[in-house]
Amino acid sequence: MRYRLLALLLLMLVLSAYAEGPSVSPAPPTPSEGGGGGSSHRQTDMEKIIKALEQGKKQNPKRFEYLQTLLWKEYTPPGEYRLPAVLIYYRGNTTVRRSDPLEIQAYVTNENELEIRRPLYIDLEMAEPGGDFRRVNSQTQIVQVNEYFSTDGINYTYRSFPEITDLRSLKETGRVRFRIKYTDSLYKMYSSNWSVSSPQLFPVLELNVINNPPVVNYTNVTYRPRYSDPIEYVADIMDPDGDTLNVTLHILNEDNSTERTNVTQELRGSGTVRFRNSEYGFFGKEDAGKTFHYYYTVGDGINVTSTNIAEGPEIRPTPKLLVESPRMVAEDENYYWWGRYNFSIDVKSQDENSFPLTVYLYTSTPSNPWKLRGSRTVTVTPERQTVSFETSFDVSDSNQTFAYRFSYSEPDQNGRTSMDLAADKPINPKIVKYSILSPLGIANVILTLIIFLSAGVIVERVSNNRGRKKEIKGNQEGGR
Amino acid sequence: MIWAAMLLALLLVGLVVHRMNFERVYRRLSELSSGVSRDKLYELLSVDHGANFSAMVFSSWVAFFVAFMYYLLPPLIPWLLRSGFPIASNYGLVLFAVIVASLASFLLWASRSFPVWLRLSEIYRIYPLSRNEMSLCAATVFVLVVSAGLSFCNFVNYPFVNRTLETAAWLLLLVALILLFIPVFNEFVEAGR
């Protein structure tokens, strides 16, 4: 403060000369002012200087500021003030992966006595491979004058940078340097200004940063689908660094060398990516019968991992199947559940090619929904042929409506692979196949009668034996 | 179900009357001589009516339970179908009859260990029976066969239940039960005089 006051006085003197000007002589003292003597004269000068400063500040503020700058004198600490030292404290390996946890601290020593210490403002700077240093902490760490520990005459303390936990954000691997920039409001300093030889203290910390490339663990694709089937490429991908990954599926043409298409999905860290034909439209009708290959590339922003070329899918050729006349003929028009039902369908090839075809029959009632009743495999030729099934229902289906479905392994002329139809009337509610006067009915009645009589005889025999035993026992006891 | 309950109530009435008959004899005997147990009295009163009669009466009782279950069959069919019992197969009803007859036979056999008035299989042993009564009791099995046959008709036509056949089957069951308890009721009436 003393220096600032001196500077201010000097300023006032200069300005007083400037305010008065060479042509302006001082006004004679008025009678009323005369009593002051020399003191009064200094007071008048002071008033003039103040007035001149006020005028100068108002009329030419820029020059006024410039004058202030010229006359400003920095505060210089007492001669015994020593610069505090700040170094990087780091205990880990100097070769690190981007995902490795990182803990960098500032180690501060200050030899000054408490009375002359100054607060320190500390920032951490990092230089990426081939780059310049830039500040990486969001909040400046402050060391107040009384925040030091003292051991063996050394005043020291630590400051952490909690924002720096790892180096995932690096977009390039290689040599990464750290240093500390700090100031005591008088001097700007760097940790690199110091030289120390300690295994855990570094003026400049140099880390060799390596990257973990993403791993594509498993890939597969729908096996031998039709072009209209839900074809899906699935890949399980894992990145140890937890990076945001760009997973690209490359589908090659039949020649296995040129790329047909590629699509990319973004994945964070690890997970499963699915590329569906229904979503991206990889394949169309014209691809039937072709075999494709594919591979993945996975990039984490630094490395790109490429998988081997795999085969898939082998899209099945689509034969020209014509399906006609689905029908159901019941053995009995009353639709008894035990009756035989004939389900049939006509198939033929629409061109000269023959191909295997599997036809499945399903029936559905509320009790037995969509139950598979059988399958037939036939070779479809240009000649019309009938695929038929014989089946009957279950007693639990009685008195229920029913539907039936022909399902076939190749798409038909409409691109469908199944055909659903409903019966015109429900299954008869009667549950017993025979009538009372049928041989079976009469046999049931006679057998029932035999059961009555047999049961009676058996019970009588068992009871009688027991009674006899009791009688013999009584006689024996009476004989004694 | 109320008709079925009425049959069971009649069965219970028969057993209660049978007990009253026995207790009356027991009370009179107790007045003359104390220290005679009911079991001993039952043994003393027991009369063997012959194996043929016993067999026919047992058959009648088994037939009663089977015919009764046949009568109850229509409302039971959905449950039987759901449980997987092959009631609708060719001999499903015979299988059903075998199961019911086995249970009824076991019940008759096991009832010999019950209190004297609940011994259904030995109910006639304490009553002197005339030839007519014996014939009626023994013939009950044929009445029950007819009742079972009528219920069988309804079963064959299920789910269409003929109410006339159902009523006839019930009436025959009722008649059969009354016939089975005729000696008991006769004794009760005779004692009342």
Protein model, in words:
The complex is a heterodimer of chains A (480) and B (193). Chain A has 480 residues and is an alpha+beta fold. Chain A folds into four domains: 1-21 and 41-73, no CATH class; 85-210, Immunoglobulin-like; 215-314, Immunoglobulin-like, CATH 2.60.40.380; 321-422, Immunoglobulin-like. Chain A has six helices and 27 strands. Chain A has helices at residues 2-20, 31-34, 37-59, 61-71, 277-280, 439-479; strands at 85-89, 95-97, 105-109, 120-127, 133-135, 141-143, 149-151, 154-160, 174-183, 188-190, 201-202, 205-210, 215-221, 232-238, 244-252, 259-268, 271-276, 291-299, 304-306, 310-314, 321-330, 341-349, 355-364, 371-380, 385-391, 403-408, 418-422. Residues 1-7 and 13-37 of chain A have low confidence and may be disordered. Chain B has 193 residues and is mainly alpha-helical. Chain B has one domain (2-192). Chain B has seven helices and no strands. Chain B is elongated, with a radius of gyration of 19 Å. The mean pLDDT of chain B is 86. The chains are: A alpha+beta (480), B mainly alpha (193). The interface between A and B is large, with 35 and 47 residues.
Structural class of chain A: alpha+beta
What average pLDDT do the residues of chain B reach? 86
Q: How many β-strand stretches of chain A? A: 27
Range of helix content of chain B:
over 70%
**Total of helices of chain B:** 7
Quick one: which chains have the greatest interface? A-B, 35 and 47 residues
CATH architecture type of the largest domain in chain A = Sandwich
| N-to-C SSE string of chain B, H for helix and E for strand | HHHHHHH
Biggest beta sheet summary of chain A = 7 strands, mixed
Please count the beta strands of chain B (DSSP E, at least 2 residues each). Answer: 0
Question: What's the number of structural domains of chain B?
Answer: 1
CATH topology of the largest domain in chain A: Immunoglobulin-like
